[in-house]
Amino acid sequence: MLTQVATRHTRILLTGDHAVAYAALRARPHLIPVYPITPQTPVLEKLLELQELGELTADIMTVESEHSAMAACIAASLAGARVFTATASQGLALMHEMLHYAAGGRAPVVLVNVNRTLASPWGFWADQTDSLAQRDTGWIQLYCESAQEALDSVLQAFRVAEALLVPAMVVIEALYVSHTLEPVEIPDPELVDEFLPPYEPPVRLDPATPRGFGGTTAPVQWRANRLALKAAMELALDAVEEAGRRYGELTERAYSSVETYRAEDAELVIVTAGGIAGTAREAVDQLRGQGIPVGLVKLRLFRPFPSARVAGLLAGVGKVAVIDRNCSVGSGGIFCQEVRAALHAHRVTGPQVFSFIAGLGGVNVSADRVMEICRSALNAVSAPPDPILEERL
Amino acid sequence: MLEIRIHGRGGQGAQVGCQILAGAFFKTGRWVQAFAAYGGERRGAPVTAYLRVDERPIRVRSDIERPHHIIVLDATLLDDSSIVASLRPGGWLFVNAPLPGVPPWNSVRVVTVDATAIALRRGLSPVVSTTMLGAFAGASGLVPLEKLVEAVREGSPARAEENIAACVEAYWACAGLEAIGA
């Protein structure tokens, strides 16, 4: 088998949404049930264009709601089809019930969610609460910082989801990724076909051999189903690493569940996810240029949460500044909750963990603001228990 | 890294124009990042588009608060004085206005071009962005005309030849122009 050079690609300018559509094209899904919603709509528009050109052979099934879209995804997936869909915000919220159904039914659907504010009030802006509110549905979740990472992650999500029979959600931010035009490498079809062979489910719904799905269970059966899902989800920790490594062999772009940037010997480590991670890289370089030793830990995989890796990476660090573009009202930043829980669970007591809430509702988070966040944490004597609101710095 | 901001109103082509300029720079081998901020999709509402150009991959994902250059598609937007105030020292301000309606600001190099008149002649109104891109390329010399023309051809949703003609006309009107207020 080949593991050849990584020059088999085309680099063109694409928005994050269009990059996602090209990922779906390369994944060769059979069916795409979908309902349009800003800022996901360009995904659907590009898919329809690719279908019109004869490049995309999948059936695009436009339905009357996101709830129906996910229902169609589940049915097709259980019949053995490779299924893709995309949504955002209210659309994901409307899918919520069906997200549980997909995970419990072990339907390896791949969904792209564009992080957008939830109403009310109405808005179109970047905010992670929509997808983070789905953290207990049993879906794998990957957060991306660029159009390239979005494209690459969709392909990896299919590989992991289908190997484990666990659905996977790939998340990009509204505007700063979804509508941002940037150079993106589209891997050639043969390369993707090698990485992602056709989906071969162990069982499938087929009228020739009638089976049931989703029937009523006794408590013991329900528990067994949930624990089987839990066990499969735990395997995703390694499966995501394997997929990221293998993808790197084919494309020279390797990925991991957690990524670090200049974190070695850092007195303060920023922990964040999504588009702010890119801005944080710039802030890290500028602060290091001023002799201030800071680094970055980027959370790419959120479900399953790579608890041991996060704890291990932060074990020797003096201060940690978690930046959340979300707010669980009554508690705080959701990524910070998970980081603090991981440190506690692994008995890592050294780092002071500062929780910063920044960029809510798509408010701009510049590299200067990330540097201010770092300086305020470095200057503080101790981390307060409550989140620090970035606009009050 | 070069940072450019385009201010326009919904329908003038700020967002698509920004993507076209990104495409022109991309054709010169540079890395680019282009995006736009707008509210509900309304004609006439202010639209801000952002463009970054660099020799290496661009990581930062935020609005451009201190641009090197600003392109203004509708001079009435300059009633908001924060737009000009945000320009970096020595920056260029390109304004769609009939001469000599726009005053020179201290330390700001102003280039005015009657893009509305050019676009009207070419049957493009209200789209003035491609005309202003020609003015930008001509006066700044930052992007070659042939790359810009290619990008306009590929990026125009309609009337590609009219957009190219307007772009080229504005380019030569501003090529080598000594900026006012320099």
Describe this structure in words.
The complex is a heterodimer of chains A (393) and B (182). With 393 residues, chain A is of the alpha/beta class. Chain A has twelve helices and 15 strands. In chain A, 41% of the residues lie in helices and 19% in strands. The model of chain A is unreliable at 1-6 (pLDDT under 50). Chain B has 182 residues and is of the alpha/beta class. Chain B has one domain (2-174): Pyruvate-ferredoxin oxidoreductase, PFOR, domain III (Pyruvate-ferredoxin Oxidoreductase, domain 3, 3-Layer(aba) Sandwich), CATH 3.40.920.10. Chain B has a six-stranded mixed sheet with strand order 2-3-1-4-5-6, covered by helices on one side. In chain B, a hairpin with an 8-residue loop joins strand 2 and strand 3 (46-54). In chain B, helix 1 crosses helix 5 (145-155), helix 3 (115-121) packs antiparallel against helix 6 (160-174) and helix 4 runs parallel beside helix 6 (160-174). The mean pLDDT of chain B is 91. The chains are: A alpha/beta (393), B alpha/beta (182). The interface between A and B is medium-sized, with 23 and 20 residues.
Structure classification of chain A: alpha/beta
Task: Give me the strand/helix succession of chain B.
Answer: EHEEEHEEHHHH
Overall average residue pLDDT of chain A: 96
The number of distinct structural domains of chain B comes to: 1
Largest beta sheet: strand ordering of chain A: 9-11-10-13-14-15
CATH topology of chain B: Pyruvate-ferredoxin Oxidoreductase, domain 3
Q: Please report which band the strand proportion of chain A falls in: under 5%, 5-15%, 15-25%, 25-35%, 35-45% or over 45%.
A: 15-25%
User: DSSP strand (E) fraction of chain B?
Assistant: 15-25%
- Overall body shape of chain A: globular
Q: What's the architecture of the largest domain in chain A, going by CATH?
A: 3-Layer(aba) Sandwich
Secondary structure: number of strands of chain B: 6
Q: Characterize the main sheet of chain B.
A: 6 strands, mixed
Oligomer class: heterodimer
Helix content of chain A: 40-55%
Principal-axes geometry of chain B comes out as globular
Biggest β-sheet description of chain A: 6 strands, mixed
Number of DSSP strand runs of chain A: 15
Element order of chain A: H for helix, E for strand: EHEHEHEHEHEHEEHHEEHEEHEHEHE
Strand order of the largest sheet of chain B: 2-3-1-4-5-6
Can you tell me the residue ranges of chain B where pLDDT is under 50 for at least 5 consecutive residues? none
Could you give the distance between the termini of chain A?
A: 56 Å
